[in-house]
Amino acid sequence: MKKIALITFILIALVSSYSYAQESVPKEVLLNTLNGVNKLKLSNLRTTQLMEYNEGFVDRVYKIIDGDKSSKDKKSAFKVLNSDTEKDLIDLLGKKNYKKYKKLMDDELKPLVKKSKELKHLYN
Q1: Distance between the two ends of the chain, CA-based, in angstroms?
Q2: Which residues 6+ apart lie within 8 Å of 65 measured at CB?
Q3: What are φ and ψ of residue 38, in 5° steps?
Q4: Residue 50 and residue 89: Cα distance in Å, rounded?
Q5: For residue 54, which of 36, 72, 39, 71 has the smallest C-alpha distance?
Q6: Is residue 13 part of a domain?
Q7: In the chain, which end has fewer C-beta atoms inside a 10 angstrom radius, N or C?
Q8: Contact present, 46 and 93 (Cβ < 8 Å)
Q9: Do the domain assignments include residue 5?
Q10: Please, which residues have CB within 8 angstroms of residue 108's CB and are 6 or more apart in sequence?
């Protein structure tokens, strides 16, 4: 009986760790998605500046995701981050290009949001 309980526990642990692994999105994947702006036809300087900005942005996103806060606190932290990011990106890209970038990211981030539900708070 103890062997069956032990085997059951091991199987449950493996299944749990497998499903958790499926739900994480590596930083590099998120960064590459955020940097995929060829469709916007930005200047090389703006593209470089955006890529530099996105590196810090991704670090801040994962600091929130990996933190010990409750989901409610994480959601409010994402709201603050989104507000700051909107201001920064409007300064960097201009309002028109920011709107285009936000629309593009809404579309491009959908597959990543399916993998990690916490990413649904980006740009919202």
Answers
A1: 51
A2: 74, 116, 118, 119
A3: -55, -35
A4: 8
A5: 36
A6: no
A7: N
A8: yes
A9: no
A10: 33, 36
Instruction: Specify the number of domains making up the chain.
Output: 1
Three-state SS sequence of the chain: CHHHHHHHHHHHHHHHHHHHHHCCCCHHHHHHHHHCCHHHCCCHHHHHHHHHHHHHHHHHHHHHHCCCCCHHHHHHHHHHHHHHHHHHHHHHHCHHHHHHHHHHHHHHCHHHHHHCHHHHHCCC
Domain contains 14: no
Largest CA distance in the chain: 68
pTM of the model: 0.76
Q: State the residue range of the domain holding 62.
A: 25-121
Burial of 57 (0-12, 13-18, 19+ CB in 10 A): buried
Domain-embedded: residue 9: no
What is the reported pLDDT for 21?
44
- Radius of gyration of the chain from Cα atoms? 18
pLDDT tens figures, 21-38: 446 899 999 999 999 999
Give the closest residue to 35 by CA, choosing from 17, 10, 52: 52
